[in-house]
Amino acid sequence: xxxxFWDSRYASEPGYVFGTEPNDFLRSVVDRLRPGGRVLCxxxxxxxxxxxxxxxxxxxxxxxxxxxxxxxxxxxxxxxGVSERVGTxxxxxxxxxxxxxxxxxxxxxxxHLAPPDRQQLLQRVARALTPDGLLVVECYTPRQVRxxxxxxxxxxxxxxxxxxxxxxxxxxxxxxxxxxERDVIEGSGHTGRADVVQWLARRPNAAEHRS
Length: 211
Known about the structure:
Elements: H1 3-12, H2 24-29, E1 38-42, H3 48-55, E2 59-64, H4 67-79, E3 86-90, E4 103-109, H5 115-128, E5 129-140, H6 162-168, E6 173-186, E7 190-202, H7 206-210
């Protein structure tokens, strides 16, 4: 969607649209991330996941197309006392340079793109990981259309299955890969029963390739 859509949504709704607490899947795997590492959060919106990671000692860069959302992210980081560990960049994710081998982890939470864009960005994210770096993904699956609890259910082509993620990044090792029905309670934007895919994947290191 156009940045103006998200700017308007983040500005018009009281508080934080998706709450101030981190995504549950991210919370469940945070101890598997490299301590004190550099983490990139894509489509980070109002900053809940970035701030959570900063509170756990990570150095985080949050990318989003919404300047309003990232302003709220900076405010949340300030309120939580972690501003020095959270940087924000307003950008078009599909054209922003992510680097190569630059990030110890990338966090992709409820970012839904058209399949060609999703595949392109996932491939760039995989290259941006350091050896042993982790990719943390949670998205809605096509079965989410039976619920009215969040996600682009009016555009089901944006919803994603585990196989779609894995096929876009064949060089990544799946550590956790599942599709499940669960309660997603994240502010007013995501509230209720939902069908999601969760994927934790690792970029193998050079020694593993040589073996």
